[in-house]
Amino acid sequence: MPRLQPWFSDFFFEPLTEDVEELLARFQQTDSVRYEVFSAIWREMRFSDVFLGINRVSDSKGFSRVTLATAVKYFLPPYSYQIRVGGLYLMFAFYHTQLTKPPVQIRLALRDWNQVEKFLKDSVESGHLDVVYIYRKLVETKAIHYTAMPHFLAFQRQKKPQKEKVCAEFLGRATAVQDLLSAEVLEEIVHIQNWYKKLKEASTEVPDHASMTHQDLAAQIKDCLTGFVAWQEKTFTRDKNIKIEEEEEEEEEEESSSRAKLLASIKQKSYSGVQQVSKSRRHRQAEVVDSASSGGEQVQETRSGRRPKPPSLRARTWKSLGMMEDDNELQAWLLSAPEQRDRLPLRRSQAHKP
């Protein structure tokens, strides 16, 4: 039976990369490198659930390798220091939450060891002890496997790793210009310039007005580099502020649009509850009838469009004799009150004929 292909790539998994970038973006917005902040975001997103739902042991091991390789990618340059710290925390979290027994180790190529040492040195100098502690814990638990290649290779399996898109927001700014501003570099430039002047004075063949360097070269370089760094800081800050303003405007637009949709839905529901009246009945008017109840309730009734019924012969006879008929309805024969029974005319039943 042929082996089924895994549902993820051997080097990276695109949905996992998107989730990891979202987590790192939230961590970047906090402007912090503390592990406490990262762990809170991790628990909020329930990121440890990425290992659930894998039944086969081989797929579980392969997916664990992919998750750890994704974390290592953000732990190495060219990303900024905060993103690299987030990558280290991801390595620690993925290693301790994977379901594979024994756990899959983190593959760290030897060509990247210089970058790791520089990263640890910068962390110690900056006083970020959380970063150093997490890395030391990985080393003590033997979670790191120092290898020649960053990805797992097998016999007769030559595959080139697929190229992934680099998130531009996570990239660190170029530090080469800032490295030139160090005191050691400037002192070295001044020393070289002074040595050049001494050699020129000692030589009799070179004229005095001939010079291959500028006067006060170190001061000019320092002024140029300082101006560039100031411009860089101003540009990045402005771009960040513009991005924050755009996000706030988008949120306000979304809130206004949601509010408008809510009002429209309420109006639609209220309009749909009103019954439509036909055109032939729109000219009819409604009358309000006041009931004589104790509560004084008012009942609004609409008369039908029929013509009023003409008075009966009995009513016309009473009217012609000058006698007014009682408004109240007469009760059944011989079952009414005595005062009403005396006023009612006697009727002979047709059933008892003489």
Task: Describe what this molecule looks like in 3D.
Among the domains are: 14-172, no CATH class; 179-264, no CATH class. The chain is 52% helix and 5% strand. The protein contains 11 helices and 4 strands. It has a two-stranded parallel ribbon. α3 (57-75) packs antiparallel against α4 (81-97) and α8 (183-202) runs antiparallel to α9. The model is unreliable at 282-303 and 327-334 (pLDDT under 50).
List the topology elements.
Layout: H1 14-29, H2 35-45, H3 57-75, H4 81-97, E1 106-109, H5 113-126, H6 129-140, E2 144-147, H7 176-180, H8 183-202, H9 217-273, E3 287-290, E4 298-301, H10 313-320, H11 338-343
Parallel strand pairs: 1-2
Antiparallel strand pairs: 3-4
- Helical amount: 40-55%
The biggest sheet amounts to: 2 strands, parallel
Catalogue the unreliable spans: 282-303, 327-334
Walk across the major sheet and give the strand order. Answer: 1-2
Number of strands: 4
Gyration radius, rounded: 46 Å
- Proportion of β residues? under 5%
**Mean pLDDT figure:** 75
Distance between the termini: 115 Å
Q: Structural class of the secondary elements?
A: mainly alpha
* Coarse morphology: elongated
Order of helices and strands: HHHHEHHEHHHEEHH
The tally of helices reads: 11
